[in-house]
Design a protein that fits this description.
heterodimer, A: about 110 residues, mainly beta, four-stranded antiparallel β-sheet, B: about 110 residues, five-stranded antiparallel β-sheet, 11 strands, globular
Chain lengths: ~110, ~110
């Protein structure tokens, strides 16, 4: 089955620790995205990548970092510089960046800072 | 002002009712429009794209009013399974420079009661 997987589903972190969230897709999509969702709010874009070895900051990139070494993988690191990291993190992908087409989402990772 | 605004609700309706959600967007250059559905603690999934002429998919009808910059979603004959949060989503980029970035509203919660 083609799709997007994210791991872990739940993640607990102590303050001051960096953590990395995994996102893998086997849809052969070029573009991948990371969003953050807080209760009662819409999704906010953290980082996105249109092609391997290239990525751009989204609206709320501070305190986060990404890499795109492989087409299938787009991991997100939440660093200790992120002041309020507790949130629901969603990874998405789509097949072409120049078209009116659907973004497919992974099941998400819930990060809680203790 | 938020780029995409929705009434968060909740909308509580009985089974069989017709319910309508509206969404306004601030950027008149917005190019494409979508409704996504998000179940509790799950990832968003595309419900339907919204076309200029309006479009229908079974019990769901989406309409776009570019002059007034709003999008609507009408659900007829509501089912218990329609209970979810409905996200209004906009892409403001032209095809030639489209990175696939989407702007999400905060969502409207629908609860269908027996």
């Amino acid at each position: 089955d083609g799709g997007i997987t994210q791991s872990p589903k739940y993640l607990f972190r102590k303050e001051g620790q960096n953590v990395t969230l995994s996102c893998e897709q086997n849809l052969n999509h070029d573009a991948m995205y990371w969003y953050r969702q807080d209760p009662g709010q819409g999704l906010r874009l953290i980082y996105y990548s249109q092609i391997v070895n290239d990525f751009q900051k989204g609206d709320i990139a501070e305190g986060y970092s990404v890499s795109r070494e492989k087409k299938e993988s787009f991991p997100l690191t939440v660093t200790s510089a992120q002041k309020n990291p507790t949130a629901f993190y969603l990874c998405a992908s789509n097949s072409r960046t120049g078209a009116n087409n659907e973004q497919f989402f992974g099941p998400g990772t819930r990060l809680t800072v203790l | 002002r938020k780029e995409v605004e929705q009434d968060p609700g909740p909308f509580n309706v009985p089974e069989g009712a017709t319910v309508a959600f509206n969404c306004t967007y601030s950027n008149s250059a917005s190019q494409s429009f979508f409704w996504y559905r998000q179940d509790c603690r799950k990832e968003p999934k595309l419900l339907m794209s919204v076309y200029s002429s309006g479009n229908e998919d079974g019990r769901f009808t989406a309409q776009l009013n570019r002059a007034s910059q709003y999008i609507s979603l009408l659900i007829r004959d509501s089912k218990l399974s329609d209970s979810a949060t409905y996200l209004c989503v906009v892409n403001i980029e032209k095809s030639s420079s489209n990175t696939g970035k989407l702007i999400f509203g905060q969502g409207t919660t629908l609860q269908v009661k027996p």
